[in-house]
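hiii so um. not sure if this is the right channel but i have a protein structure encoded as tokens and i wanna go backwards to a sequence. like what aa goes where. can anyone help
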């Protein structure tokens, strides 16, 4: 099992749970794939794209369950990022963690298995 991570507003994820499928955020839909990060990439993704935002979930997903729809593509600084070309089945989710916002706008992160 390889874990990858999606950061998203709690309300968006709760709606996906009700619908039984996650089609991504507005940014994901615009780009044509769902953006994920590895454990090592999560801190920078959080600080770069989600600083100061409250009500976020960190969703751990079993990458091995995503099949050929998951592609590793170069992005920030040439690092390979996991991109899912299709909807995310909540059955592939390993855990959902609430991210606590600190006074400085950063978030508390749990230890992340990779």
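sure thing!! here u go:
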């Amino acid at each position: 099992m390889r874990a990858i991570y999606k950061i998203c507003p709690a309300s968006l994820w709760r709606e996906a749970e009700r619908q039984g499928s996650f089609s991504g955020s507005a940014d994901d839909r615009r780009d044509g794939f769902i953006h994920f990060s590895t454990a090592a990439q999560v801190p920078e993704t959080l600080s770069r794209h989600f600083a100061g935002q409250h009500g976020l979930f960190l969703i751990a997903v079993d990458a091995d369950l995503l099949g050929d729809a998951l592609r590793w593509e170069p992005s920030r600084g040439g690092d390979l990022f996991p991109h899912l070309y299709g909807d995310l089945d909540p059955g592939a989710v390993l855990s959902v963690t609430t991210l606590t916002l600190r006074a400085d706008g950063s978030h508390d992160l749990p230890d992340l298995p990779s």
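oh and Helices lie at 10-19, 26-31, 42-49.
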